[in-house]
Amino acid sequence: MEIELVEIKNHLKRFSPFKALPETVLNDLVSHIEVSYYQNGTKILGHRQENHYLYYIRSGAVEIKRSNGQLYSRCGEGETFGQFSLLRGYKVRYPAWAIEDALIYLIPDEQFQHLCDTFDDFADFMEEDHGSRLLSATTKNRHSSASPLLMTPVRKLIRREVVTASESVSIKEAAKIMSNARVSSLVLLNNDHAKSAADLEVKGLITDRDFRERAIIPGLSFSSPVKTIMSTNVITCQAEDHAFEAMLTMMRHDLHHLPVLSHKQVVGVINIGDIVQFESHGTVFLAREIFKQPDVTGLKRIAREMRLSFVQLVNEGANSHMIGSAMSGLGRNICQRLLQLGESEFGPPPVPYCFLVFGSMAREEQLIVADQDHAFVLHDDFIEAEHDAYFKSLAQFVSDGLSTCGYPYCSGDIMATNPRWRQPLSVWQTYFENWIERPNPEALLHCSIFFDLAGIHGEGAYADQLTSLIREKVKSSQRFLNCLAHNALLRTPPLGFFKTFVLEPDGEHKHTFNLKRRGTAPISDLVRVHALACGSDALNTLERIDDIHAADLLPEGTSDDLKEAMEFISMVRIRHQALQLEKELSPDNNIEPESLSRFERRHLKDAFQVLRNQQSFLRYLTKGSGWRID
Asked: pTM surpassing 0.70?
């Protein structure tokens, strides 16, 4: 073989999908390759031009654009383009330009089609774009080691037929029904008002514990209607939900029984025991143990065990949403228990309050490395001179307790220990009104985290009122969205102009990039802007993307790309932390590219490119007509 062909073959063998081809196939392929040179600024492929070659970049760089002129991607050494036109009628959809002097190998259509027909992996590679490659990557081997908890539908956890009664029966009758059926819970329906089975609704739930604490101990007459002691606003799950989702629901709301619905009809009740039989990572056990701890020392022990649960979830194939929800749920439980312990030490609060959490815990995306972000919203009867000493002490107790449990103090001082974030509801309402009605990028830079808020203890209605105010005010504030978008564009993905990783040049984390600061956080930031624009009440980033898609705020097809980018970056970050924990190292978010597999490096670049494209679109919105705000 001529020396020039050997050189071409050796270069192809360095990159997917050519490196997987047999030697004899490569030998034949290089004999058909043509070589072409394009100067910087030269058009290589025009829109709707007929194309009969696959283009492989030996050196230089190429920019691929959409038909409307927007950037689609940039390609560098070892990457290909032109395959979509070969697969779809030979008409070029995305024009290509050399943005640096480029040496390109042209593979004829006949050889390209032969490779696609003969080698499935080659065909799969060529048929995928950024989004589909990420979809494949995020689902790759997900279920190979998945525990039954991740895969089992809730309906398979139901052990017996559901036992129900009318909400109008007496306490004594309800107790008799439960005793005869030998169950520990009773679902109460609107039997007296329903005209048919389809009209039956779950109105309440009663358990053995309710009888003890709400009827027997207070000395209530057993002839009283059971609805006087039943739990209302009952949390339920769906029969086709996964057991893991039911587990998260029970953790989040500290439930022991969970009614199961199918087509709006109750079909059963599951309890903690039904979940535990499937669980190997102990998350439910930890959630229950948190509320049994008598002091901060006990909570610190639980927090250490959370790390083992985190690693087990990763090893069982849980996705980022499952892991983030579980860790956030346990973190919330620790906050709640600290507040309970604080109230036991300092006495009942002088005025009602709501404890807010912000950021990743509010979005249910918290991992094993997370600092504190919290605040107090107090009743408007709050008088600083009379009441603040109590809440200052409670805030310090909770914040110190969280620090002991491994949650570092917030470097930006967004904690209830800061008197600015320990204010009455009316003051908080003024805060949000000012941020939205009189925004400026510098002020919002430190305040955007407050727009991911969740009330986890106390008067939850205060958090609801703030959320409603935000949604209402944002509707008429294009300027606020533009300022928020400006800040969302400050954190860019660690991707160079030619799709090489941009690393920290010096310091403690030299030669690494931070997957939270440069990956998941920028995605959460830009998604938050769109979510506020469309009035979404979701907090979780993936759920917000669904709402944004439903509101038609993103270009066609990009919502799925964004979700898969978020998932892949999150899972690389999660696996990195799990590996550090297994090696008994302190987990962090700093990645050395050399520690990643070629598979991970390639798909991280795809994910970062999706993020870069979405940031370009967000920048376009701020300069153009903006969002469609009703």
From this structure: yes
